[in-house]
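User: What would this chain look like folded?
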Amino acid sequence: MQLRIVHTTTFAYDGKASASLNQARLTPVTSPEQILVHSRIEVHPTPWTYDYRDYYGNLVTAFEIMDEHDHLTVTATSTVQTEPRHPGEQHLGWGDLGAWEVADRWTEFLILPDVVAPPEDFASRVKDVAAGAATPADAAAAVAGLVRAEVEYQPGATGVHSLAADAWGQRAGVCQDMAHLVIGGLRSLGIPARYVSGYLHPAPDPIVGLQVTGQSHAWVEWWDGAWRAIDPTSGVGLDDRYVTVAVGRDYSDVKPLSGIYSGSGSSTMTVDVQITRLS
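Assistant: Here's the prediction, encoded as structure tokens.
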């Protein structure tokens, strides 16, 4: 299907910001599962901008505003043609996945920093559910199922700086937390795993021409000879309602918008995402 996504972020400052420097990761990728037909990022007040690819291949739009302003609005509009996902048939076994070459190639997707590090009781549960897994693919499905069964999706239960351990401790969080938990669980088993940011059309069968309110979404890709996607939040296989924007080790690598400003004490951020199926 073809989807149009309009992602608007507004910052309102309690005074005047004298300068603002930012990075936006809001442009969807082109891949075997999707083609970026059109994309633009509009910023008000008008900034100086430049684009580059980061270490993980994500398109970054960097911009800076050096004039005083009391608000900042960033609107990313994208049209994406999505296709059904057909993962490769090659699946490595546990022995192949444990080879030194795999660990050397995917080192950054095997480390366990605090944001994804599994707490002791969760790590124990992961080992239990993976003990009967004949393949890493079976283990990935089991770990995602464990998180989905134990952690309630509850907006507001955590913040963007929360750790996976926080969500597990209270058994509540959002898609970011569930992705971090699964990533930590898989890495603890020696399975390379990475964080994916993007969008998911909320309707099971989207109506052509109907604009709906959506939101940014997060899921996980794990590797056993090829990158394969799994969404621990929705509990369904990824289909053509998903749009990938960026990948990284964890949320800190794929923030839709990040930056710094000076000259004002605080700011309030609002986000609005509108998704329309065009065909």
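The chain has two domains: 2-83+255-277, 94-253. If you want, I can go into more detail on any region.
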